[in-house]
């Protein structure tokens, strides 16, 4: 295996020693966990294949527990994605919607598992770009690295867009929409500048509670017969739901891409496992996180669709009545901000590590360390702001992200990672190996189908929406809350 060019061979070997815990645990020596904990308690240096020597005078980039990792996974996923799911059900129908969510959950859940195993096998990997170098050399690193970074920046833009919708809803469009997007950018940028994942994990708890309280409020209000904001005035309206709809191919694949987007946090998991105190616990956090996430998605999408039917707004929190939707967005604001700051932090950390990986400034509190870090935060926020204002409609933006970027680095890359690691496995040719190989190849080509067809559908939809006036113009002050 060729080493990552930004780390020398001795650093990689020291990193492998620091990760020997996983290998020895498989050999039956779980006491290694206690040894690592004791070494930390005694103030001994930790040498990591990515961060180098971690000492007391710098940030500890290997301090994330598996519980905090689970929370960060949930907050990375449960946020913007959940706000598009009811509309996906409205397009597909209840039963197809449930089938697609479960199918995508299983495929991406496998990808998440592969991330953790790959990290244990190759401790020098910190981002999907490092994987790209191992699989495809220089161009593999640059292509996957750019796709990863662009996806996170684009999703951050969707966060800014959703926050501007929230402020417009709460204030009844008190000022220009661009101003609200700038407010979102500044607040998220400041919070995202906190240096380590461990230190922002508490914001993950807050954000998760915020989003869940808002969607629960939405479901309760609709269940109590609150008139959806998109429904006609008065009582002469009926929510129509179908078990299986008959959408056009363009609409159907767009709905699938919205669901893919709701699970498209996989590339962020490289950073999460890379900062875990005990990376071998990553699989446990993935199983718990993916199970809770899918259960929440199914409940929220089904309940909102059942009570609102065709009168579902985008984002879904705007579905509630005039007053309740203000409450929903008020409750959701901390969660939308928390999700955005985790995304900004992850995107900026990727560039930060790429710039300083060979330098002692990476894990030392030097002027260069701070200058590069805050510069990465600023550039990430500015680019996300431009994306948010260039495609100013929630469903169109998340559908495009899910199709063009979500599948490439959440399905195709991880399935190929498994094949790459197991092609010369001693178990090659066994029934288990054959079945897993077939499964990975199937998942891989499903991802390519969604990428090609979904990108085409998203572009057609965006073009159509601009032409018929459904979308406001880029950088417009117009109200984007759909207020009624």
TrEMBL record:
Belongs to the amino acid/polyamine transporter 2 family. InterPro entries: AA_transpt_TM (IPR013057). It is a multi-pass membrane protein. Keywords: Membrane, Transmembrane, Transmembrane helix. Residues 63-456 form the Amino acid transporter transmembrane domain. It comes from Kwoniella shivajii. This is Amino acid transporter transmembrane domain-containing protein. Gene3D superfamilies: Amino acid/polyamine transporter I (1.20.1740.10). The chain crosses the membrane at residues 89-110, 143-167, 174-194, 200-224, 286-309, 329-352, 372-391, 397-420, 441-462. Its main location: membrane. It is found in: Membrane.
């Amino acid at each position: 295996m060729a080493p990552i060019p930004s780390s020398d061979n001795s650093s990689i070997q020291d990193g492998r020693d620091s990760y020997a815990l996983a290998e020895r645990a498989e050999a039956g020596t779980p006491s290694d966990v206690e040894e690592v904990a004791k070494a930390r308690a005694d103030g001994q240096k930790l040498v990591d294949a990515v961060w180098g020597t971690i000492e007391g005078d710098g940030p500890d980039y290997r301090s994330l527990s598996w519980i905090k990792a689970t929370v960060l996974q949930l907050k990375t996923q449960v946020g913007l994605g959940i706000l598009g799911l009811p509309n996906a059900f409205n397009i597909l129908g209840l039963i197809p919607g449930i089938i697609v969510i479960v199918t995508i959950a299983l495929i991406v859940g496998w990808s998440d598992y592969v991330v953790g195993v790959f990290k244990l096998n190759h401790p020098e990997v910190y981002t999907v770009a490092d994987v790209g170098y191992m699989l495809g050399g220089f161009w593999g690193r640059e292509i996957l690295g750019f796709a990863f970074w662009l996806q996170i920046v684009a999703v951050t833009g969707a966060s800014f867009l959703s926050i501007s919708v929230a402020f417009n809803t709460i204030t009844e469009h008190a000022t220009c929409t661009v101003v609200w997007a700038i407010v979102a950018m500044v607040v998220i940028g400041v919070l995202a500048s906190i240096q380590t994942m461990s230190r922002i994990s508490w914001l993950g708890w807050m954000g998760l509670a915020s989003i869940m309280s808002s969607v629960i409020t939405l479901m309760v209000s609709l269940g109590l017969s609150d008139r959806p904001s998109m429904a006609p005035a008065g009582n002469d309206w009926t929510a129509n739901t179908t078990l299986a709809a008959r959408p056009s191919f363009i609409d159907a694949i767009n709905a699938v891409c919205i669901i893919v987007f709701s699970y498209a946090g996989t590339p962020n998991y490289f950073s999460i496992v890379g900062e875990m105190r005990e990376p071998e616990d990553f699989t446990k956090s993935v199983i718990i996180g993916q199970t809770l996430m899918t259960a929440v998605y199914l409940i929220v999408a089904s309940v909102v669709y059942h009570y609102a039917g065709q009168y579902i707004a985008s984002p879904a929190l705007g579905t509630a009545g005039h007053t309740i939707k203000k409450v929903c967005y008020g409750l959701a604001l901390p969660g939308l901000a928390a999700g955005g700051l985790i995304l900004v932090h992850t995107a900026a950390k990727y560039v930060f590590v790429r710039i300083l990986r060979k330098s002692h400034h990476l894990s030392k509190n030097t002027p260069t360390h701070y200058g590069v870090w805050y510069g990465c935060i600023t550039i990430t926020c500015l680019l996300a702001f431009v994306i948010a204002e260039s495609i100013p409609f929630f469903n169109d933006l998340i559908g495009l992200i899910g199709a063009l970027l979500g599948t490439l680095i959440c399905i195709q890359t991880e399935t190929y990672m498994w094949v790459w690691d197991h092609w010369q496995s001693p178990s090659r040719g066994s029934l288990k190996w054959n079945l897993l190989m077939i499964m990975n190849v199937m998942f891989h080509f499903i991802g390519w189908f969604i990428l090609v067809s979904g990108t085409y559908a998203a572009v057609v939809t965006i073009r159509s929406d601009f032409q018929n006036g459904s979308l406001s113009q880029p950088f417009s002050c117009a109200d984007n809350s759909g207020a009624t």
